[in-house]
Design brief:
With 446 residues, the chain is mainly alpha-helical. It is built from 19 helices and six strands. Strand 5 and strand 6 form a beta hairpin.
């Protein structure tokens, strides 16, 4: 891919600031969604702060050579629920979030040490293009339902086998389509700066349309048109409620049984996220034209992800992970400048203390972000397909391997082993590795 800004390029300060705001908009919805899902008084502002700190740590470990943002990980939602479920008090639950993240980080550190000693050739052996390409596609396709649901303002109807609209249905869809179309047109036909900030332009367009509908709805009393919730400003949080401030009050309540519960809840999930970590970095490598697993090295990306994830949980309760939305933003805008990611992390830290700004961002309707995510997740899926281009799919070995990954991933094959949930991405990747090992060419094969 011909990048406008390469990893080491440094756009002017004004441009970097705008690019960073765009990255924030791309990762915001998912980053603040996790604390909202978990509840228990968790702070969205603190999650934003933790994501910023985690990304800074990641950049330091990777020597500022990997342009991706780390945000709240959805993979650990079940683990976080387990931390509160096994606690006897809120304070103990918050402490559990930090201890659990420490267990996950320890897994990353151990794997990083193994990689440092053994190298990454075994990774390339287990995960060639025929395996990693479809897996990257599945990462995007597995999120397709979320984008469509947000865009339609609806929920999945099991009987209908499709997403159905809620009260705001058609209005939500209009806003989502306006956002999507403006993003695409800006990226394809925009001049100079417009090509670099299509998401900002698209979100602003979608938000303006949503506000117009909301004002009409307020004036007519029509709830179906009221997309923007301005009442959030009344309950605005000015200062983040950092996790550790509450967690330290639960130190005297710790038990060995509870710590063991946290280990069981977090450690297996860390191995699952490790697989997605490789897929994300393989995808990013193909976008920037540099093999990140070699330079700065998989051991460094793992350490950055693991340690950054721990500090993300220390401040905000949520372990972090590299974000596909961030990778998609880099790919679509062709801006891989790591300075942009650095500025994004710093802005997230600053913004977490600016109540009005965080609240304003939270008022962006889900349908507007759904329009953006259709483009972002779709780009991730297509990036995986591009990795398959050099693969000979006339060879049944490759054809079957890719087929297994696509069908199990798109079909949503999720496995529950004890308290551990293997996501469709993890299951598809594991089955793809097994199939490739069984079918790969050997000495006498023709």
């Amino acid at each position: 891919m011909d990048l406008i800004y390469d990893v080491k390029d440094r756009p002017s300060f004004g441009k970097v600031l705008v690019f960073a705001i765009q990255q924030i908009l791309a990762i915001l919805a998912a980053t603040i969604a996790v604390p909202s899902i978990i509840g228990n008084g968790m702070s969205q502002s603190a999650a934003l702060f933790g994501a910023g700190v985690g990304t800074l740590i990641y950049l330091l470990f990777t020597r500022f050579r990997s342009p991706v943002f780390l945000g709240s990980s959805f993979a650990f939602i079940g683990s976080m629920f387990a931390a509160f479920a096994g606690a006897t008090s809120m304070e103990m639950g918050y402490l559990g979030l930090i201890i659990g993240a420490a267990f996950a980080a320890l897994v990353y550190v151990i794997i990083a040490i193994v990689v440092k000693i053994a190298g990454v050739r075994w990774i390339n052996f287990l995960m060639p293009a025929v395996v990693i390409g479809p897996t990257v596609s599945i990462i995007g396709l597995s999120l397709a339902g979320n984008a469509v649901s947000d865009a339609m303002g609806g929920i999945y109807d099991a009987e209908a086998g499709a997403y159905v609209m809620n009260t705001h249905g058609w209005v939500s869809l209009i806003c989502a389509l306006v956002t999507l179309i403006v993003v695409c047109v800006s990226s394809v036909y925009g001049k100079k700066m417009a090509k670099l900030i299509p998401f900002i332009i698209g979100i602003v367009a979608g938000y303006v349309v949503a506000v117009i509908f909301t004002l009409i709805g307020n004036a007519t009393g029509n709830e179906a048109l009221q997309l923007v919730d301005f009442s959030k400003f009344a309950a605005m949080q000015w200062v983040p409620d950092f996790t550790f401030l509450t967690a330290f009050k639960g130190l005297d309540q710790l038990t060995g049984t509870y710590i063991a519960t946290l280990a069981v809840a977090y450690v297996p999930v860390a191995f699952v996220v490790f697989a997605e970590h490789i897929a994300d970095h393989k995808n990013l490598s193909s976008i920037i034209g540099k093999e990140l697993l070699e330079d700065p090295g998989l051991h460094r990306t793992l350490l950055g992800d693991g340690v950054g994830s721990f500090f993300g949980a220390f401040f905000g309760g949520c372990p972090n992970t590299t974000y596909g939305e961030s990778v998609g933003c880099v790919a679509i805008t062709k801006n891989a400048s790591v300075v942009t990611i650095l500025c994004t992390a710093i802005l997230c830290i600053i913004a977490s203390f600016l109540g009005p700004f965080v609240t304003f961002l939270s008022t962006i309707p889900g349908c507007v972000m759904g329009g953006v995510c259709i483009a972002l997740y779709g780009f991730i899926a297509v990036s995986g397909l591009k990795m398959l281009q050099p693969v000979d799919l006339n060879d049944n070995r490759n054809l079957f391997t890719a087929s297994v990954i696509f069908i199990t991933g798109i079909g949503g094959m999720v496995l529950k082993i004890g308290s551990v949930n293997l996501t469709e991405v993890a299951v598809a990747l594991i089955l793809g590795i097994i199939m490739n090992l069984i079918l790969r060419k050997r000495g006498g094969d023709k």
